[in-house]
Write a structure and sequence with these properties.
Chain lengths: 444, 444
């Protein structure tokens, strides 16, 4: 068992995070329990910023609020100097409550209500990234009514159809990712038309997710140069969005491959950590390309909107083993939280038996939640020590798209605690009661 | 456009539900807005009960609380005389609050916490259906401490592996549905062992979902006879669970088929309503088989746990069109609610343009939500009239696994109104504010 340095196995075989016994913690707060690591969360932000700034000084990092919109976690990002990327009125509310100044807030999204646009413009947020002409018209109108010139960015879509199983699958749904922003092929005309709105100032371009952009960097630079020279638009912000995943997913294709691997006597590769995004390399590539190609113009800022990369490994979820079953020749470990708390069950997460942390892996099991449908998985075919009922599982890498994506299906949400920089425990979200779930309802 | 009789198109072309103008309703309450039809909900229950009782008098219908646990809706089922099927402490709390008497509550589920078991036993609910021996041991211990004999049912799993694409797909995950309950192959031994717990009284058998049981009815009857004759266990309840869907889903296979249909010039079949479950036929089959085979024993009650079949078509969701886009040769209709409110996007739902309800279908579109990821669908490749921004879409069949499965990802939840039996409008769940979403959190 390879544990990261913040973890330690105590002499009683309990898993400790900075010296805090996670078994004791679970006894105090019950399970399920989300535990966040403030130190790592701050380090993640600093590493991300430093990596990009090393190659390109004018780098801005926006924390993607929707990834995990807990107020304390957002506040920590605000304290670090991050900007906030918000994508709805709720996100904007959270950003304000967490203390982000208006000039450090960027509003994104395929659809924003008139109410949210009005709030954002009244609050004088830094930038609104737009994805359609109807939105530009709406913003232009509202800004006009308020007598302001609104700074906007334009989202350009670099989505490419590939010769792959995934792309073929997506074609059945008309390539859903292609609907965001404006196609790169029409982008010049979009900027030209956008520049004519009297109450809009075009200051940015957004190309989320970053990995779609990488192969098209020269094309993107040509566009930026052209809109500068021909339209006189000097972009201040080149925004590469997010998508910097540090984990990997298990697809049906992986499961099929693994099935055949095992048929011929090879070991399962499902638990083998795949290489995570090489931020060093990406930052150098982006910086070098921009510096080489965007000459003869004021240097723009580059902007990123990470969420997953910053908060995912800073969060873990403690779950209790409720029962163990055998069926279809598999062992099923049933725990007290499932896709109600970790909806993206295909993402691979490391599991540690927190009350017997040095026990060696012994068998392949399915770890599943307490909900009443088949696909309520925590981990598909993963190697674990021999599990007993009552064991405590620490599900690592549970900070992103878990709480923000959670439901109140069958279970109220669990409490969330933070181990702060002094390794002191703070409750940053109270446990929901049954009444918290239904208090807006009435019995007729 | 074939509208059910409760709907009417008014002279101003607005869609009316029992004379209530849905456009006006959306103007009053905003969008998104859930609208429930009390009359239809009650009718659904009565039809379901009547159909089964016609063939088998001792029929019990349990409303599956998790399908939609709104207190008013649950209260309506309680008033109709339904039992409640609960599957967690939250469900049990809701059932109590909605007025279900203890002897009309059944507790199901793969995993139930000791706390929930204790609550249920203390409250003297009718029956606990168990799915593992460790659970029996837990219940036996708690019942012993409380000095009661707890009535339990045993869940028997009739899941069969089939030669089909779906079954092959499920095999990659070790047939997840097989983990529920006990395999039919071991069921006799399970009942034998279960009968030895001193504080348990075995009174039922559960075989959810009903459709797995149909082909195995004779086998099930043999089992029931054998445990009566050899173990002396007289079952009072034969529970066939739920699964009575009245709608259908769009799978990737359907999309592939449709792709080729259109290639050869045939019309799309995606919008073609598939036959829904024939409850008449099922009830006759079950009743006849039981009457024929379960002779020489006291007549047991048959129990059903529908949810979807009762509440799905009683609910609709009103959504506003925010913008319209073209990409990948498709038209994308972006509305103000998506998989945050209707997570099971593969389920096919009829859409009506509520403000121009008689407009004929004109084109095939993708209707998508406002969230920031590709698979945020409301309807995949569906035929609609030519849509304009600002149009109001009524998404029918939105009552089951929508509210109970909803998230607070990016958006607080919308209000829910009920058109009661007098077609008067009652708010049965208040709109969530931003603060409702974050009030349990603290800014450090």
């Amino acid at each position: 068992m390879k544990l990261k340095e913040r973890f330690r196995v105590a002499t009683n075989n309990h898993l400790e995070l900075y010296g805090v016994d996670l078994v004791k913690l679970s006894n105090k707060f019950g399970t399920p329990l989300f535990v966040f690591d403030e130190k790592l969360f701050r380090q993640n932000y600093r590493r991300f910023l430093r990596t990009f700034q090393k190659n390109y000084q004018k780098t801005i990092i926006c924390y993607s609020i929707k990834t995990n919109y807990n107020l304390t976690l957002c506040r920590i990002m605000q304290q670090e100097g991050a900007y906030a990327e918000v994508a709805s009125g709720l996100d904007l509310h959270v950003a304000k409550r967490a203390g982000f100044q208006a000039d450090r807030i960027i509003l994104d999204g395929l659809y924003k209500s008139a109410r949210t646009l009005r709030e954002a413009i009244r609050y004088k947020i830094n930038l609104i990234n737009v994805e359609s002409f109807s939105e530009m018209e709406r913003i232009n109108k509202i800004a006009g009514e308020m007598g302001v010139k609104q700074s906007v960015g334009i989202r350009v879509n670099l989505y490419r159809k590939r010769m792959s199983f995934k792309s073929m699958y997506k074609s059945l749904y008309c390539h859903p990712d292609s609907r965001f922003g404006f196609s790169i092929d029409t982008a010049y005309l979009v900027f030209r038309r956008a520049s004519k709105f009297e109450n809009l100032q075009i200051t940015g371009i957004l190309t989320h997710p970053y990995y779609e952009t990488i192969a098209s960097l020269p094309k993107l630079c040509s566009l930026i140069k052209r809109i500068q020279s021909e339209l006189g638009i000097e972009l201040q912000y080149i925004n590469f969005g997010g998508g910097f995943r540090s984990t990997w997913s298990i697809s049906p294709i992986d499961l099929i491959k693994d099935f055949f691997r095992q048929k011929i006597g090879l070991k399962s590769k499902l638990d083998k950590e795949k290489k995570s995004t090489d931020i060093e390399k990406i930052s150098a590539l982006i910086a070098n390309t921009l510096k080489k190609r965007l000459t003869d113009m004021p240097e723009p800022s580059i902007v990123f909107e990470p969420g997953h990369n910053l908060v995912n490994d800073a969060g873990l979820l403690l779950l209790r083993v409720g029962c163990i079953k055998e069926a279809s020749g598999c062992k099923w470990i049933v725990v007290d939280g499932g896709t109600n708390l970790i909806p993206i069950y295909t993402e691979r997460r490391e599991l540690i038996v927190a009350n017997r942390a040095s026990a060696p892996p012994a068998e392949t099991v399915n770890v599943v939640g307490p909900l009443l449908y088949g696909m309520d998985f925590i981990a598909i075919k993963t190697r674990l020590p021999r599990i007993k009922e009552g064991d405590l599982l620490a599900v690592l890498n549970s900070g992103a798209y878990t709480m923000s994506f959670s439901t109140q299906f069958l279970y109220p949400r669990p409490p969330v605690v933070l181990l702060d920089h002094n390794a002191e425990i703070k409750v940053i979200r109270d446990k929901e009661t049954y009444e918290d779930v239904v208090h807006l309802e009435k019995v007729a």
